[in-house]
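sorry for the late reply, my laptop died twice this morning and i had to redo everyting from scratch. anyway the thing you sent over, i finally got around to it. pasting the sequence first so we're on the same page, its 364 residues, then the predicted structure underneath. double check i copied it right bc i was rushing
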Amino acid sequence: MQPIHPPTTATPPPPLPSAGASLQHAGAVRSRSRSGRIALFFACVAWYRIAAGLASSSANGFAIRFDLAAWQPLIEAVALLFLVLLGLTILRTMERTLVPLQLNLGLPSRPTAREEWSLGAALGWAVAASSALVLVVAKSLHIQFWTSPHAFVVLGLGAVALLLSTLAKLLAIYGYGFQHLIEASGPVRATVVLLILVALDAATTPTPYGTADGVRVLIALLAALLLCLCWLRSRGLWLGWGMWFGWSASTALLFGLPLGSFSEGAVVDARVSGPLWITGGFYGPTASILLGLLLICTIPVLIRLSDEYAWLYTRKPLVPAGIPVEIPPPAAHETIELPPAPPPSLVQIQPVASSPVGQNEPSN
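ok and here's the structure:
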């Protein structure tokens, strides 16, 4: 990938606008207290939990009533995204912000948006493929293919459902909410608070019997840390959205492995056997030590691959400041620095004119 920024020897251009910078633009947002920003973050988290419950129950009832079991994940994802956008719109109205909607949600329109999403999707696919490759080498992965037309329909519906559901959670938690938490407490404290909430949510999530819950909570923390790094390195959701979707779609749809509560095999249906630290049991790779090790290795890779986006969207421009001061030099230096005096002019003596011979001789 060719570098986007100019060589370091040249004068760096001003940073491109980002979501975080736009939120702090003078006059764009009404003055908010620190507690008000924290309240906005927790309101986003609470609304997402409510929206997820409403979307799940409504999609379940709709699918049972009209016999649309294959469409249930997509219906739930559409309902969840709609409810999240509705709640964020209400919060924006209460906040009385003048920031454009895309920036406020963490999806700024910029030249590298498609490249960021593609890079994130490739990174997520690489993590899922590495996990599946270890299962293949350990002879713990047993795959069965379904080639009926209905299987491909389920595959397409599942891909769109994962695309929308990952976007909905990112918009609520890591986009609109995380921005306000960073404004209130700084990036480090905001990341710690978010990780604590993720750990509490993972610890209270019901799981099948035999699931290693401690490992599952650790993996949830590592995944949340990666998503926070995606935001902090690029000031946008494009990179994190691509990475989360790439990993989820590859794990559940491409390799047919269980993904928490989402276990649609579609075209590929996989069965795993072997130690839990590799397979994760019935809960899938998100409860395996193997995935935790892969996520730890992904952190430096993500930082390295996002260097250009950090250069473009997170660095602060150099602003000249200070008071110009001119100190007069000492008197001795002034004397030394004076221009040399011009040399004295030469006086030219004209020769005396000689008289003719005998003219001035006295007469006898």
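The chain is about 60% helix and 5% strand.
thats about all i looked at so far, will dig more tmrw
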